[in-house]
Design goal:
Ribosomal Protein S5, domain 2; alpha/beta; 23 strands; nine-stranded mixed β-sheet; 26% strand; Rossmann fold; 3 domains
Amino acid sequence: MKKKTIYLCDKCGYESIGYFGKCPECNAWNSMKEVIVEDKKTSKGVTKAEKRPIKRLKDIVSTNSDRIVTSINEFNRVMGGGIVRDSITILTAKPGAGKSTLLLQVANDLAKIGHKVLYASGEESESQIKSRADRIIDKINPNVWVISDNSMDNVLELVEEIDPDLIIIDSIQTFTLEDFPNSRAGSPTQTMECANQLVKIAKNPNRPRAVILIGQMTKEDEIAGVRALEHLVDTVLIIEGESGEELRSLLTTKNRYGSTGEMGFFYITDKGMISIDNPSEYFMTVRDANSIMPGSAITVVKEGTRPIILEIESLVSNSFTPYPSRISECLKREQLNTLVSVIEQRAGINLFDKNVVIKTTGGIKLKEQASNLAVVMSIISSVKNLPLSNDTVFIADVGLTGELKRVPSLEIRIRELDRMGFKKVYVAPNSGVDIKTKNTEIIKLKTLREVIYNVFKD
């Protein structure tokens, strides 16, 4: 078996047979490291790959519907309906976000319905994994096997021995293969080669297996290592949530078997991650008619394919400094400043000497323009100190001219409101919505001033 020397960039994974002081791919200086690899060849000097029969596309049987379904509804939703049997998924998040906890729950859940699961950890000892399992799982199923080892070779041997249906790797950056002794754990070479071995296992047509990798996250909130790792896998999942808060959101940024951008919600507790099956109840404050407060407005945002009814709260107060504060963790500051300018210019309400603070119940981010009218109305409600009815909803973008703009998927949003029993919804006049509702009156208005007059009679 012949050995050869290559040079590998430890920043981006660029490979070259010659040395460069500056990586041609990522422009990093002094990042090219010498690596000795074995060149596996046949006696004729040509690498021989396994030959597979060619098939017509129309003759191939699709297995996308053949999924492993857990009892964790929010996890199933994000995965596109469950785990595809021959898929490989990577899950990443900041330390302490709940990656290992969630996958340990998934492992035990699938074990209860007869699936074999191998949980391989390169970060925690077996006793640490058992301690976590005792805390979050009432009864540990015997179909879950655990190995604490940094050797991917040992893990692959166990796969052959146990024959699991699901393999969980925690985390991929801690494992190494013996074929690359000069590369440390976490290097581009080891990470990609370990991942490639797992892809071969997952995609084996004779014995497909599901593989879930845990990936470490960098300070830039990206998966550690080369970007090629994200291209290699079928699904990329991210757990988002601030430390100290109980809400966690599970987001998919790539999914070959489902919708990209799908989001699931969980509570994180001492007993693990608890699925929030009806997020609209979580993201709204329940109030009776006598306790409605000024500054609260309701809208419907869309996370993936799901409409979520969301409460937006505003607080407007007098400023005693030359530069009033504009504070919002759920909305970009530039967007908030734009909406404040529209209120001043198009609604005639002065905010130049007022502090404006915006937040959402539950801390969900406002990524869509569909929530702009609700943000504006919550601010105006706070300024006027007049509450908005808790059965009234606002779904529209607000242009710089003060005109209401149509938003996508409006029919889906209104049907959710009608199902939940809301009485009124304000939308743009050209929304293209013509549906019959049982509970919700659809009010189409052209401008922000018309909405203000219709709501406050002012």
